[in-house]
Fold this protein.
Amino acid sequence: LHTRLKPAHTGSELEELTDTINLMLDRLEDAFRKIIQFTSDVSHELRTPLAALKAGIEVMLAKQRTPEEYCELLENNLIEHEKIINMINDLLVLLKTDAAKQEFYDVDLKKMLCELYTAFQVITETKKIDCTISKMENITIDGDQKLLYRLFSNLLDNAIKYTSPGGNICISLKDLENEVIVSIRDSGIGISENDHNKIFDRFFRVDASRSRDTGGVGLGLSICKNIADLHKGKIEVKSTIGKGSAFLVTLPKSHFNR
Ligand code: ADP
């Protein structure tokens, strides 16, 4: 790459063709750059849990230990192992949304959000978070059922992860003329304004050490953004440090005439 064509004569059809080819070369170059960046990010992120796994095995092999010590070391290994599996699963979802063709069917959003609320009820109750779902109309939109569920469950999962016991979360659905807005609000730790755009980047974590405790690798929100994009929608964040965050997902109701 880096090669660009120069037309022999200006103002000709050949010049237009050259411009088009150069534009395509630019896009190809951009795509290659992104692939290289992505591969290098993935390798870097996988190296940390793999190194922890290796270190754990080396410690076990170094000398004879008590059964309790072996148990503790094996449990730590299992946690690192789970992180790798979670990351690979997230990467597969990212690839799927990157390459997905639009095959949309009717999605009953009210039903989906109620199911989501119920699925997370045990976790919110255990963590003593007051999670509510606002009164909502029946709304059906064109979409991919599994991917939309993934989008909202990532957002709810984050809201729970970043909200302390005693806090609250609210799920709501707003019906506008041609689109809907799903919002998931929490009274958690909040995100500084500087980071509002960055949190949707792959592998970005506001505080890497804190996120490591919560088991995240920084892929959840980039998956959400990909899924919203695939539905020709958008995802926005409103958040204040120490007060909480609201993630708003706007989705068109229909994809016909688009
Ligand atoms: P992770 O797996 O680390 O949670 P995400 O892509 O889902 O990755 O989120 C990126 C970062 O955005 C998180 O590491 C966290 O710092 C921040 N974040 C996401 N959701 C929230 C939230 N509801 N409240 C506060 N911070 C959040």
In short: The chain has a mean pLDDT of 89. Residues 158-159, 162, 186, 188-191, 199, 204-207, 211, 216-222, 245 surround adenosine-5'-diphosphate (CB under 6 Å). The two ends are 34 Å apart (CA to CA).
